[in-house]
Amino acid sequence: MMSSSFSSCRFADYFVVCGLDTDTGLEPDELSALYRYIQAAKLRDGATRMSARENFEQSPLRRTFKSKVLAHYPENVEWSPFDQDAVGMLCMPKGLSFRTQADPREPQFHSFIITREDGSRSYGFALTFYEEVTSKQICSAMQTLYHMHNAEQYDILHMPSAGPPASLQRFNSYDITRDTLYVSKCICLLAPMAFQQACRKVLEQLHQAITSSQPPPLPLESYIFNVLYEVPLPPAGRSLKFSGVYSPVVCQRPSTSELPLFDFPLSDVFQLLGVENVLQLFTCALLEFQILLYSQHYQRLMTVAESITALMFPFQWQHVYVPILPASLQHFLDAPVPYLMGLHSNGQDDRSKLELPQEANLCFVDIDNHFIELPEDLPQFPSKLEFVQEISEALLAFGIPPEGSSCCGDGVPKLTGFRSCDEVSDRRNGNLAGSPFNSFRLKDNETIARLQALVKRTGISLEKVSLFVREENPASAAYQKVQCEEDELQTHLLNVRLREIFANRFTQMFADYEVFVIQSNQDKDSWFSNRDQMQNFDKASFLSDQPEPYLPFLSRFLETQTFASFIDSKILCHDDEDKEHTLQVFDTRVDKVRMLNVRTPTLRTSMYQKCTNIDESEKAIEMRVSKIDHTALHPHLLDMKIGQGRYEPGFFPRLQSDVLSSGPTGNKWAKRSTAAHWRLRDKQRQHVEQLYLDNEQKHIQEARSLGASIRQPNLSNLSPSVIAQTNWKFVEGLLKECRNKTKRMLVEKMGREAVELGHGEGSITGVEENTLIASLCDLLERIWSHGLQVKQGKSALWSHLLYMLLIRCDLHTSRHIQNIGEIKTDVGKARAWVRLSMEKKLLSRHLKQLLSDEELTKKLYKRYAFLRCDDEKEQFLYHLLSFNAVDYFCFTSVFTTVLIPYHVVVIPSKKLGGSMFTANPWICISGELSETVVLQVPKNSLEITFECQNLGKLTTVQVGHDNSGLYAKWLVECVMVRNEVTGHTYKFPCGRWLGKGVDDGSLERILVGELVTPTSENEERLCRTPPMQQSPSMIRRLVTISPSSKPKLNTGQIQEAVGEAINGIVKHFHKPEKERSSLSLLLCGEYGLVWALEQVFLHGFRTPRLFKNVFIWDFLERAQAHFESPEQRELEQDENWHTRAHDFCRFMRAVNSTPRNIGKDGKFQMLVCLGARDHLLHHWIALLSECPITVQMYEDTAMIKDRVLVNSLIRVLQTLQDFNITLEASLTKGIGI
User: Fold this and answer.
1) C-alpha span between 1097 and 1057 (Å, rounded)
2) I want to staple 751 with a disulfide (CB 3.0 to 4.6 A). Which of 199, 379, 467, 762 is the partner?
3) What per-residue confidence (pLDDT) applies to 69?
4) Is the confidence at residue 119, as pLDDT, over 50?
5) Where would I find the UDENN domain in this sequence (predicted)?
6) Which of 909, 940, 943 is CA-nearest to residue 923?
């Protein structure tokens, strides 16, 4: 183990040469050709013929030929086995490329990454250049191909149906007698760590050695041997200098307290895309959307991919990661999982010609054209405007326009890196703009314009905005003794500045995350085996502490595998010594933020805090590059045989394998590097950090792999059986994800069961619920996109639904969605359809019906598609069936502006049905979102259908009539209202008369609604969660007092009823504002506050004379008359008593003077609601308990006359003072107070 650890500290593991194998000759790249054949087969006949014609027109110099690994040194190392197929494919992803002397032949550098099954990585750095072809057989073969090509072109041009003649400059473009043929060759370094700039310098100097007119000082074998065996990795926090062929190479590595190593130029990414696009791409990566990068430059693909994942610190991308996808693997874009892939373009096809298997959840980034296509409903990153401003200031300090620049090259950019002296000089000479926001033509950029307006509102002069320059003396020792090139230093400094700004955002947002981590009391093996069933983070509590604008992003981010893996790492690493590097660095920064927050509290607010530790990070880099910690052994002559190491200009030599196959065996050169040997502890520490050899890290890697079974396609074996096995893994992964999502949603929704299973509190917020349903929509889109034959539109699910509508007409839900004009896109319609089906409890049935047409499914999907795996499909539908166990309002609560048709039926009493009823009835319906106008109901049918903007969950109905005609008395049993889109039916029980001289004389009543439970078996309903707060079957039935009807509740039961009613209101206000249900149900519903206080006033009420009805309102009116009597006014009472009496009488007068004909019971309800709103109920109870009218109208045993019980009641009612109660308009209509 020790020797392995020692050896793996080498700077590079392998040196590789790829190119043309002259022994095997020209071989077409069969995998790429196969992919083109598959693509052509998907098109129709005419399109296939066109594709074939285009292939005939393809010049032999532009065709794809197979490249091979010609040599690699050493043969193999135990800590990093050599994968020949993967390396060959990624070194030259397009295969061999041929050129003539007339074509450009500039060398091209690119890097790549190989991810192993255990999650560990190797980095590759490749330089591709062109060598003259010396093999006569190859030149003759190319000449033969051109003869055949010219003959085919001639036949095509003379076909009767041929269009305009193609350009003929391709003909005879290679002539063996006058042209020189060149072929691509690649040299590559494979390394355990991504020292991109150093490896690039090594390769470029090797290439310079073979193109120079003078031979290198030493044979190339000496330099390659040196970098493979004699140059170590610098340990954390140190720098290293070693020798290239012509100049020294410097690399430096961050310490354990700094951000992890990252050596790709972030300046390139921001110049290529601009700040706005980078931030959108960054958001997509955090939320685990499918991301496809598109460029004709391989290095751009790699740079953007590595930059985005590095900016995610402390989080790590957990899914498929292939920055460079070889042409032969483009079928992997069919993967129904989150991925980050890079696709090479030929520079000719635009976005419209690129056919992608799935686009519903895709972020498409056209790097070369400064363009990004985002998925729908992408939430905004928290504090985006201030974040963009801080990033822009950092870029401007290095002379980079925040909106990007299309002229960015592939090389390291020439960064300005202003210093204070330069700035003063430039200002004096007029070379520096007065305001950085006016530079680089930023005024045309919308985001920068908003930033400029924001800065102006703060009162800061833009002319005085600092460019965040380093304030140091230009003659300082640090800058005089820098051991690397200035451009390289500027790249390091800009990188660390931008990375610190991004890391600071997460440090601020998650400064208190440790408080919400749910630590397990199980051992690690038990925890790992039960990981799928456990919650590791208290998401609801964390979100409740966050500023409102952050919630759309954070609620979705907390559901990602990225965040779950981060928390898993936290749980598995209890001690600081066990923590992996990224977690340790992040926790240290979090501790600093919390310490600062004690002095200046800013956490849990939307106050933006800029990064404060940039200077410290920049100084650490400057120190390392100004004082080199170690210089490696210089290259030296090797023990080579005579004649070896010969030099031939223009050709990379065939290296001598006998001297490169193994490292030094003796101490001959070790004596020269005594000062360079580091302690073994340093080596072991870096090995644990970067190469995942610690057992603890294995647990973490296993935990991370729970949601991501495939990180990278198998590049070593691309046989049909391996491709089938990969697709089978996708099918299993989709089924597992479906099972986990449905279980999570049910557990969160059902509440009580969640508490019993140990998942924390059983409540789920609307933000969380909406996030979970959105993720379910994404999953369904990925399932319907997997194995799709021909894609039609961006949403595969909606396309399938439209196919079914053309064939069969029984999916009414789809027709409802089609008729909603507010939803414009196919993806939006598919998501609306899923939400509506869930709300109707028909999702599983609809999808089963959709997949019942097997012929259509076979026509649309390939054999390996998820939807054609019968067993998995049945399990999938069974999991979705469990959603019928709970009530969702996911369509009603999201699509709040759509027009909804409602059907209303007023049901009169069967015994006194009102066939003689002569008045004109009306109705007004209220919901959580809005209410209707007064609607006239035909008295002959008592039914009405109308359309209005979504009312939300229905809460109350006002029903009444105009008291016209001879018989204007109406006994209403109930009112039924049905939402014709969602199918929800609400019942509003009444059971009371409406008419003068009957009951309490009310002409209108306010009814509280109850959602009707479907009872038919065809609803596929398994069970119900506790329903919404129900209204009483007959509101205020006990208020009509007669000798035969006395209250049955005793004082203890009444006290309990009041306590429960108050407790329900208190719980209501402890929920987030957006998650609260209707307060009207808690006030006026069954067992609500009005009912409970009604029981208080009915207890001990004296029996009236026979045949006379007395109401609570009669008692209150007599009490009002008593308080307003001249005798009471003349009595000397304290000021509080007079204030309470005045308020009581004022509200009584206001309720009595309302133009509404709501009757005495309705007036009592209105008074209680107004008293609760203005926190006066406890004052009124105290006032009435001491009123002489109470002595007259109540028995001695009445609750209102018991001082102890009254004091208890007052204390309970006083708890309402802490809440701001807002009443529904239907409850206070006509009241001016």
Assistant:
1) 13
2) 762
3) 92
4) yes
5) 49-580
6) 943
